[in-house]
Fold these 2 entries.
Entry 1:
Amino acid sequence: MYKDIIDFIRNIYKTDEFIPLHEPRFRGNEKKYINECIDSTFVSSVGKFVDQFEASVAKFTGAKYAIATVNGTAALHIGLLLSDVQPNDEVITQPLTFVATANAISYCNAFPVFIDVDVDTMGLSPEKLSDFLNKNTELIDGKCVNKTTKRIIKAVVPMHTFGLPARIDEIVLVCKKHHINVVEDAAESLGSYYKNQHTGTFGLIGTLSFNGNKTITTGGGGMLITNDETIAKKAKHITTTAKTPHLWDYNHDVTAYNYRLPNLNAALGCAQMESLPEYLKNKQKLAKIYKDFFKNENTIDFIEPVKNGTSNFWLNAIKFDSLESRNTFLEITNNKGVMTRPIWKLMNTLPMYSSAQCGNLDNARTLENRIVNLPSSVI
Ligand SMILES: *Cc1c(COP(=O)(O)O)cnc(C)c1O
């Protein structure tokens, strides 16, 4: 069983060895820039590669400002703080996401509220969000107050799952109506667009990740993108210990963070950004190969972006018609050295988020039992 799929994947990557889910590629100027960085002695959080990397990500995404951070989780944490998320506030997100999304909310001493995803995008559902806000909140002094908990809902964090864009324009409209800021978790969607606009640029703030398993990597790294100059300035300030510029004095005006991306990592990022267009083309090609193959499998669906959406196909995903067949597939492929992974467990089933308020999560529950990621490294 599933031998045809395993053979097919082995043929794509032309190997009999272990096939990982997503491994990085270093085929460009990575070593050159890293050597240059070491020779310059500017290996830490100040240097030309940080500036260059930020400029190239801003240009690529079309955001006015980009601020590099040590990882994507740190970018989310700062993004939430700059959306005025304070202790005891609430932040709405989807239950179907990587744990970092929910953790960043907790770092602010705020509470996550989980609202369902759409089945086709696997991202936050604008209809379900709107329903929840209409039924369960009221505007008091211009603030969206949760009638059940009496807490203020300060932000909504939609996530573009596996690079598939969510219906982000509608989500932003719903949030505007309810006076809530949008922080887009675009960690997985560098190179993904909705209505020809880059994901992460619809809301007040977007965040990216350059972890080793993402579309491009800096080893570890992240980025906050925004069109708001004040937020961009504050982001740079509080990711660099809130040090006010002075030739020699140590002046810090608030308790802040050491979240800036080192120049050494940014050197890797500059080289990876040069390769990004080629990686994206390569990933489109791979997705097409998978799509054509799964046309012939009537119990498995290949997941595609919705109309008006362009996916970077960071991780290719398929949907099974039952939990049993999904489990069999995971077992057989992983035992045969072809790495596949189920989608995440819902956040509200993890011990630290088990008491969080949730909307109806029917879609997320179904997807939790059906979705599997396939090897998706650049060929
Ligand atoms: C990768 C990822 C992050 C951030 O991860 P870091 O490892 O901190 O860079 C955040 N959210 C989602 C959905 C992710 O996939």
Entry 2:
Amino acid sequence: MTSEPTTASSSVPTSRLPERAAVVDLDAIRHNIGVLRKVAEPARVMAVVKADGYGHGAVPVARAALEAGASWLGVAHISEALGLRAAGIDAPILAWLHTPDSNFSAAVAAGIDLGCSGWELERIVAAAREQERPARVHLKIDTGLGRNGATPDRWDSLVGEAVEHQDEGLLRVVGVFSHLAVADEPSRPETDTQLGAFREAIALAEDAGCDLEVRHIANSPAIFSRPDAHFDLVRAGVSVYGLSPFEEQSSADLGLRPAMTVRATLSQVKRVPDRQGVSYGLLYRTRGASTLGLVPLGYADGVPRTSEAGPVRIAGETYPVVGRVAMDQIVVDLGPGADPDALAGAEAVLFGSGDDGGPTADDWARAAGTINYEIVTRISPRVPRVYIGEGA
Ligand SMILES: *Cc1c(COP(=O)(O)O)cnc(C)c1O
């Protein structure tokens, strides 16, 4: 798995990109799956492609991940899983977040595995009856996160009810799973407690007659920090996209390559006088005559309005955003020495692989007081996705 680092600008001539684009490197996705497989083996890898593949595009990412040896796909909603099936993807898919309005029948018909916390069980069984096809179910235990999953006091009865339906031929309990709360902070003790509760839940299900294909609890941080959490399958999300789940470790530290580059062509570059105010509220004023660069990306494109001094790379230099982020645009102060003619139509990169010393989603997360997960998932549909790498 040693492929050349690739940047958007070196792989696709800028002139062939749309004026605003989120460039997604499918070779980086494949590389990251290779890293994850190595770290997780002998456990297999589920590529989590919820939220449109963390903003990267669920279908192209899913295809690249499967090509690179991911065995499963994971999504939150049944609707997301149906989208993958509609695109012709027939790999195992698990969907785990439902409401009483979720279309369990469509899921069973499409052969989608369903997470089940308890309340869904009778609805899933009804869907299996209607479709005359046994549902494939992963029972979820809440080992401490306090979101979905059965609480431990309800586990015994949930397993009992599921096994009864399994004996009737209406479903198969193929998995037991849970989700970790603090795996990104490896020194915290709660992960041990969660793993203990998970092992107990598995033992109870197996004793009750569940012949489990997969037991799974690890998310990206646990894949790297807790080998004892790997079990049969790991659910990799943010790491598939080349981003680190840890505050203190970068993508490069983990051997991962960020897959998304968000960039645009500069809209205008102009000279302005001393004390020129910039953007709504005039919160920034130039100190001395200067040159302003206008980048046609704003909060409607997913640039956080609350960010401060987010970095933008132009012609090999990184500049902070000055003034407020507007709906459609941001401004950088290029300084008195910048040549408006030379920079007209230049490429502005908000974040990318970081290979060239340019800004990353981690830098934007710091500028916005959030996490890299949010930076990539919030890039809006107004920014066209462009795929590079083999098979793009
Ligand atoms: C989103 C999600 C994941 C992936 O988490 P990452 O930290 O992005 O790896 C795994 N499991 C569940 C249940 C999730 O909701």
